[in-house]
Amino acid sequence: SDELTQPPSVSVSPGQTARITCSGEALPRQHVYWYQQKPGQAPVLVIYKDTERPSGIPERFSGSSSGTTVTLTISGVQAEDEADYYCQSGDISGSYYVFGIGTKVTVL
Amino acid sequence: EVQLVESGGGLVQPGGSLRLSCTASGFTFRDYWMSWVRQAPGKGLEWVANIKRDGSDKFYVDSVKGRFTISRDNAKNTLYLQMSGLRAEDTALYYCARDPTVFGVPHFDHWGPGTLVTVSS
Asked: In whole angstroms, how large is the CA radius of gyration of chain A?
């Protein structure tokens, strides 16, 4: 299956650590990309190839991978990090784009 | 600075047609695969279609095959999505997105702000 499974929501207090998981059978063989989408805005790439951070993305965003699960970690969460986060990878053939359902991160 | 700006959205009746455009600037448009991605109100992201750098290959999600056509004009730095046979379930914000992938899993590094398509009578 090429489905990606994410929790619908994660809540975290300011300054704490948020961890968002993305699971899929193909993930040991395919990279995952993470996008942040704030209300009313287009998605922004925050992590690529499981662990790499694009220029301009704060260091508090990091990615890790273990088997069929990849994790986006936001360390020292700030109010501005409240957003929906989507993981994305390829389909079974690795040719098309598959998104997770998105995880809403709420900063308490 | 990479910029993608969509246009052409609006209100259309079921069964109607609409053509979306995406004007690109700040990069060499012909060097990139391009996609349309949509987001229904309150829902997640769904890839719709993509097109190869020279327009020779095009791919679609099953739900739009035979109804939508993606194309590009590299001389005008513009991406298009011709939509016909529109259904209520096509109502969404349509994003234009750039794919920088050379090898490996395809993904997006830049997105436009989107254009809203509403299908309703």
From this structure: 13
A100 to chain B, any CB pair closer than 8 A? The answer is yes
Evaluate if residue A94 carries a pLDDT over 70: no
Residues 6+ apart with CB under 8 A from B97: B4, B34, B35, B36, B37, B108, B110, B111, B112
* Residue B7 to chain A, least CA–CA distance (Å): 15
Gap between the Cα atoms of B103 and A91, Å rounded: 15
Alpha-carbon distance B80 to nearest alpha carbon in chain A (angstroms): 19
Q: How many CB pairs under 8 A join A and B?
A: 62
| Cβ–Cβ contact A12 with B under 8 A | no
Query: What is the distance between the alpha carbons of residues B49 and B97, in angstroms, rounded to a whole number?
Result: 10
Q: Where do we find the tokens 């700030």? A: A78
Tally: H helices and E strands in chain B: 0, 11
pLDDT recorded at residue B56? 95
Please give the biggest Cα pair distance in chain A.
Answer: 40
- What pLDDT is attached to residue B104? 82
Nearest-CA residue of chain B relative to A91? B105
**CA–CA–CA angle B99, B105, A80 (5° rounding):** 65
